[in-house]
Structures are given as structure tokens and as C-alpha cells.
Design goal:
Structural class: mainly alpha
Largest sheet: none
Order of helices and strands: HHHH
Shape: elongated
Strand content: under 5%
Distance between the termini: 23 Å
Helix content: 55-70%
Bound molecules: protoporphyrin IX containing FE
Length: 191
């Protein structure tokens, strides 16, 4: 586990990249509390929305009932919430990294979250989301055929990406792996 560098939030200047100070951008105590609240709510909210979409698509795939209603509900969640909530989680995560001593490239857990979240934002909004909308359209439009294999495939993609989203949440609370090793200059100073 990594120590939380927040004992005295005003003591040392924030160093976003590999230890370099960033005096031009710093979140004060109140701003930081506000951004953490929005960040945790949007990140964990995204996990909840994602799980709801998964349950609806899995119901359509495996319950044997008419898939039109659950798929229409899943597509509504995708169209209205996934893009803004996922972008909010990403942007507030970047603000917290750059504006606090955590930094963007100082701790492995932050770097891992950044990479996984970027992949999830792209995958959710450019691939899985459009798939959900397409199968919902097929299920509720007379004359358009819905292939059951497409519904099953979408449910599996949602389950796998849900595991990644859960991993990001666990990284947030456990903060594992310690600090990124810093390069040393000729004089022995860490950069
Ligand atoms: C799905 C995406 C994400 C979820 C679910 C998520 C969730 C969370 C949660 C619940 C916390 C509060 C943990 C605590 O205070 O112990 C947190 C903190 C934090 N997150 Fe994220 N996060 C996500 C994405 C990101 C990204 C992309 C970044 C950075 C690039 C990031 C950077 C941070 C930082 C630096 C903190 C510590 C804030 C502080 O202590 O002031 N997060 N995250």
C-alpha cells in the first residue's frame, strides 16, 4: 500500500510529473475535497451504470423473454449517461493527479488507473455502447433481425469490461505497487 500524501496537504508543493514542482496548478483543501467527491461519485456511478447495462443485456440474452424491453432500457442508459459520466471520472482523475502530490506518473496505481480508464472510455463509448444501441434497435424495429449471438457477445464484452472497471475501483481504494522509480542525475539527485 502507498502512504496517503495528505497528512499536511499544504506542506510541500505538488509535483505532478516525475517530481517536478507545479506551482501553477494546485488544488487547495476545499477544491480538492470537492473534486474528490465528484470523482468518486462519477467513477463509482459509472460502475453502477455499467452493471445495470450488463444485467439488462444479460436478461435479454439468457432469460428467454422478449429482449426488446431490457435492450431499450440498456440503450437509454448508454445514450444518456455513459459518455458524460465516464468523461467526468477521467477529467476529475486527471485534475486530482495533476493538482495534488499524487502526480500523474509518480505512483503505479495512478498510472494503471489512467491507462485502464482511457481504454474503458474508448471501449465503452466507441465499441460496446454502439453495440448495445444497435441490438436494441434490431430488437424493437419490425423487419430488422436480431441475432442472438450478437446479444450474447455484447453481454460478454460488458462483463469483461466490468471486471476492468471494478479493478480500477479496487486500485483507487488500495493504492498498491508503490512509487514509480525516479531517474537519477549525474550528481545523484532524483528527477
Ligand atoms: C473508472 C475510473 C475511476 C474510478 C472508479 C475511480 C475511483 C476513485 C475513488 C473511489 C477514489 C477515492 C479513493 C480514496 O480517497 O481512498 C479515487 C481517488 C483518486 N483517483 Fe480515481 N477513479 C477513476 C479514475 C481515475 C483516473 C483516470 C485517475 C488519474 C489519471 C484517477 C486518479 C485518482 C487520484 C489521484 C485519487 C486520489 C485523490 C486524493 O486523495 O486526493 N482516478 N478514485
Amino acid at each position: 500500500m502507498t502512504a496517503h500524501p495528505t497528512g499536511d496537504r499544504s506542506a510541500s508543493p505538488p509535483k505532478a510529473w516525475t517530481g517536478r514542482p507545479m506551482p501553477w496548478f494546485r488544488l487547495g483543501r476545499r477544491w480538492r475535497a470537492l473534486v474528490v467527491t465528484v470523482h468518486a461519485a462519477s467513477g463509482v456511478g459509472w460502475l453502477g451504470i455499467h452493471t445495470s447495462v450488463l444485467v439488462l443485456v444479460a436478461t435479454a440474452a439468457f432469460s428467454g423473454a422478449d429482449p426488446a424491453a431490457p435492450l431499450t432500457a440498456a440503450a437509454t442508459l448508454v445514450r444518456t449517461l455513459v459518455l458524460p459520466v465516464s468523461i467526468l471520472a477521467l477529467v476529475t482523475g486527471l485534475l486530482l493527479s495533476l493538482g495534488t502530490p499524487w502526480g500523474l506518473a509518480r505512483h503505479y496505481w495512478v498510472l494503471a488507473k489512467l491507462v485502464l480508464t482511457l481504454a474503458l472510455v474508448l471501449g465503452s463509448n466507441l465499441s460496446i455502447g454502439p453495440q448495445v444501441v444497435a441490438i436494441a434497435h434490431a430488437a424493437s424495429t419490425p423487419g430488422v433481425e436480431l441475432a442472438p449471438v450478437d446479444v450474447t457477445r455484447t453481454a460478454i464484452a460488458l462483463a469483461l469490461s466490468g471486471v476492468v472497471l471494478l479493478t480500477v475501483t479496487v486500485l483507487s481504494t488500495t493504492k498498491p505497487f508503490g512509487r514509480v522509480a525516479r531517474r537519477r542525475t549525474a550528481g545523484g539527485h532524483a528527477r
